[in-house]
Amino acid sequence: MPSLRLALAQFDFPVGAVAANAARVGDLMAQAREGGASLVVFPELTLSGYPPEDLLLRPSFLAACQCELNALAGATNGVAALVGHPHSEGEVYNAASLLRGGRIELTTHKQALPNYGVFDDKRYFRKGHDSAVALIDGVRVGILICEDIWQPEPAARAAAAGAELIVVINASPWDDAKQVEREQVLTARATETGCAVIYLNLIGGQDEVVYDGGSLLVNGDGSVVARAPNFVDAMLWAEFDSETRTLRAENWPSVPDATHEATLYAALVRGIRDYIEKNGFAGVLLGLSGGIDSALTLALAVDALGPERVTAVMMPTRYTSQLSLDGARVQAEQLGVDYHIINIEPMVDAFLGALAPAFAGKPADTTEENLQSRTRGVTLMALSNKHGRLLLATGNKSEMAVGYATLYGDMCGAYAPLKDVYKTEVYRLSRWRNALAARLGEPESIPSAVIDRPPSAELRDNQTDQDSLPPYDELDAILARFIEGEQSQAEIAAQGFHADTVRRVVRLVLLNEFKRRQAAPGPRVTTRAFGRERRYPITSGWR
C-alpha cells in the first residue's frame, strides 16, 4: 500500500511581509525536497500572514500575494507544496493551493468562517463550499483550513470524496484551554471519518495574539501520535501509512516542561520578542518598582531579548520603601540590565506647587497619588523617546479589570505583557521562573522578598492593594467567573462569594471600560482577553 512522506513547516510568517514570507517558503521547499518529502505543508495564510485584517481590502496587497504564489509554483521542482494565501476572484477567499509540477494544481477555499473571539473572517472572506482531495504518491489527501476541522461537515465531505488522510492548515492562537480542545476536536473528526489527521499550526506573536504551533498527528482511530512543542519553530517530518491509516513522527523536538506555567511563560516571552522584533525597536524600557508585576515583566523581557536590550528605571518618592529599593536593585544586578534610579520627588513637588492655587480648599485624595504615577509615566516616556526603546506597561489583568491603574501613569506603555494575566497567575509564574533558575543553577530571576511582600502601589504611607480591593485569590475567582465564564452576579454569589463583594467587583469592571480602551495591547493568553476579544460599550446603562 502507498505511503507518504511529509514535511510540516511550523514557522512564523509575519503579517504583511509577503516577499519575505515567500522567500522563506522557497527555502523550506528546498529543505523538504532534500529531506525526501513528497509534500511540504505551510500554515493558514502563509503569504499574507495572519490576521492581515484590512490589508485584505487593498488590491495591491492581494496582487502581491498572487504574484509570489505564481513564482513559488514555478519553483516546486520535485516537491509538492500546500500553501495558505488570500485568493481574489472578484471576491476574496481564505485559500490553500497545492503547488506541484511547476503550476498551481488546485486551490480550495475555507468553508467555515469563524466570527467569534479574536476572529473576524466574515468581514473579509467569502466561504468555500467543497473539500478538495488530491492524489499524492498514491495517497488521497483531503485539504482543510483551520475552522473547517472544528465543524463535522468539511471533514465528512473530504472523506466522502475518498480522503484517507486529512491535512488541515491553521492559524490558531494559543490560550490556556486551547490544546485540550484541539485534541478533542481532532480525535472526533478522525473517529467520525476514519481518516488520519495532520494539524499544522502557525507560530509567533502578532499584536494581541500569540500562535503556539503545537502541531499534532492523529491516527485514523482517533489516537494522538505526536505533539509538537509549543512556541518552537521547527520543520516536522512525518510518514503516513495508507494501509493502516497511521502516522509516524520522525525526530520531533521534545517538550522539556509542558506544565501550564511553562507554556504560559513561553507565550509571554514569544509575544514580547516578536512585538519588539517585528516593529523594529532596539530594546525595551520599563519602570521597576520593587513590586511583583514589574519584576516579572523584567524577567520576561530579559528572557525574550537578552539583558543588553533591556533598561529598568526605579523612580522613588518619600513613600518608596527600602524593601522596594533593595528588591529592584538586586533584581537589576542579577539580571544584568541597564539600571537607573531617578528620584521624582522634586518633580512631584513642582507639580503640586504649580497646582496649589487651583487645589486651594480641597483635601488631599487620590489626585495626589495619581500625580506620582503620572510623573513616572512622563519620565518613562521621555526616556523611551530619547533612547528609542519601547516602553512596557507592567499592569496585570486583575488591575485592568477593576481599574486599579492610572491613566497616563502606570498605564503608559506601548505593549503590556501581563495585560491578560491575573494577579494570582503572576505569583505562580514568578515562583515557576525562580524554580527554573534553581534547576539551572542560576540566581533567582525575581527576588523572593519581592514575591513574598504584601502588594502595594506605595503612593501613600502604609498602603497595600487590599486597602482598595478584595484579596487577590477572591478577586480573581470572581473576575474569572464574570469575564471568562460570563456568569451573572447572582450565579457568582451562589458559589459562596459575598453578594456585596460581587456587586462591587462587577461595578468596577463595568465602570472602567473607558480605561481599558486606552490601554496598550498585550498578548492574549486566556479565553476572554480585554481589547480584541472582549469588547463592551463604554457608555451603557447595563449593570
Automatic annotation (TrEMBL):
<feature type="binding site">
    <location>
        <position position="172"/>
    </location>
    <ligand>
        <name>L-glutamine</name>
    </ligand>
</feature>
<dbReference type="InterPro" id="IPR036526">
    <property type="entry name" value="C-N_Hydrolase_sf"/>
</dbReference>
<dbReference type="InterPro" id="IPR003010">
    <property type="entry name" value="C-N_Hydrolase"/>
</dbReference>
<dbReference type="GO" id="GO:0008795">
    <property type="term" value="F:NAD+ synthase activity"/>
</dbReference>
<dbReference type="InterPro" id="IPR014445">
    <property type="entry name" value="Gln-dep_NAD_synthase"/>
</dbReference>
<dbReference type="Pfam" id="PF02540">
    <property type="entry name" value="NAD_synthase"/>
</dbReference>
<dbReference type="GO" id="GO:0004359">
    <property type="term" value="F:glutaminase activity"/>
</dbReference>
<keyword id="KW-0547">Nucleotide-binding</keyword>
<feature type="active site" description="Proton acceptor">
    <location>
        <position position="44"/>
    </location>
</feature>
<feature type="binding site">
    <location>
        <position position="178"/>
    </location>
    <ligand>
        <name>L-glutamine</name>
    </ligand>
</feature>
<dbReference type="GO" id="GO:0005524">
    <property type="term" value="F:ATP binding"/>
</dbReference>
<dbReference type="GO" id="GO:0009435">
    <property type="term" value="P:NAD+ biosynthetic process"/>
</dbReference>
<comment type="pathway">
    <text>Cofactor biosynthesis; NAD(+) biosynthesis; NAD(+) from deamido-NAD(+) (L-Gln route): step 1/1.</text>
</comment>
<dbReference type="Pfam" id="PF00795">
    <property type="entry name" value="CN_hydrolase"/>
</dbReference>
<comment type="similarity">
    <text>Belongs to the NAD synthetase family.</text>
</comment>
<dbReference type="InterPro" id="IPR000132">
    <property type="entry name" value="Nitrilase/CN_hydratase_CS"/>
</dbReference>
<feature type="binding site">
    <location>
        <begin position="287"/>
        <end position="294"/>
    </location>
    <ligand>
        <name>ATP</name>
    </ligand>
</feature>
<dbReference type="InterPro" id="IPR003694">
    <property type="entry name" value="NAD_synthase"/>
</dbReference>
<dbReference type="GO" id="GO:0000257">
    <property type="term" value="F:nitrilase activity"/>
</dbReference>
<feature type="binding site">
    <location>
        <position position="370"/>
    </location>
    <ligand>
        <name>deamido-NAD(+)</name>
    </ligand>
</feature>
<comment type="function">
    <text>Catalyzes the ATP-dependent amidation of deamido-NAD to form NAD. Uses L-glutamine as a nitrogen source.</text>
</comment>
<feature type="binding site">
    <location>
        <position position="116"/>
    </location>
    <ligand>
        <name>L-glutamine</name>
    </ligand>
</feature>
<dbReference type="InterPro" id="IPR014729">
    <property type="entry name" value="Rossmann-like_a/b/a_fold"/>
</dbReference>
<feature type="active site" description="Nucleophile; for glutaminase activity">
    <location>
        <position position="146"/>
    </location>
</feature>
<feature type="active site" description="For glutaminase activity">
    <location>
        <position position="110"/>
    </location>
</feature>
<protein>
    <recommendedName>
        <fullName>Glutamine-dependent NAD(+) synthetase</fullName>
        <ecNumber>6.3.5.1</ecNumber>
    </recommendedName>
</protein>
<feature type="active site" description="Proton acceptor; for glutaminase activity">
    <location>
        <position position="44"/>
    </location>
</feature>
<dbReference type="GO" id="GO:0005737">
    <property type="term" value="C:cytoplasm"/>
</dbReference>
<feature type="region of interest" description="Disordered">
    <location>
        <begin position="447"/>
        <end position="467"/>
    </location>
</feature>
<keyword id="KW-0067">ATP-binding</keyword>
<keyword id="KW-0520">NAD</keyword>
<dbReference type="GO" id="GO:0003952">
    <property type="term" value="F:NAD+ synthase (glutamine-hydrolyzing) activity"/>
</dbReference>
<feature type="domain" description="CN hydrolase">
    <location>
        <begin position="4"/>
        <end position="242"/>
    </location>
</feature>
<feature type="binding site">
    <location>
        <position position="399"/>
    </location>
    <ligand>
        <name>deamido-NAD(+)</name>
    </ligand>
</feature>
<feature type="binding site">
    <location>
        <position position="394"/>
    </location>
    <ligand>
        <name>ATP</name>
    </ligand>
</feature>
<dbReference type="InterPro" id="IPR022310">
    <property type="entry name" value="NAD/GMP_synthase"/>
</dbReference>
<comment type="similarity">
    <text>In the C-terminal section; belongs to the NAD synthetase family.</text>
</comment>
<feature type="binding site">
    <location>
        <position position="515"/>
    </location>
    <ligand>
        <name>deamido-NAD(+)</name>
    </ligand>
</feature>
<keyword id="KW-0436">Ligase</keyword>
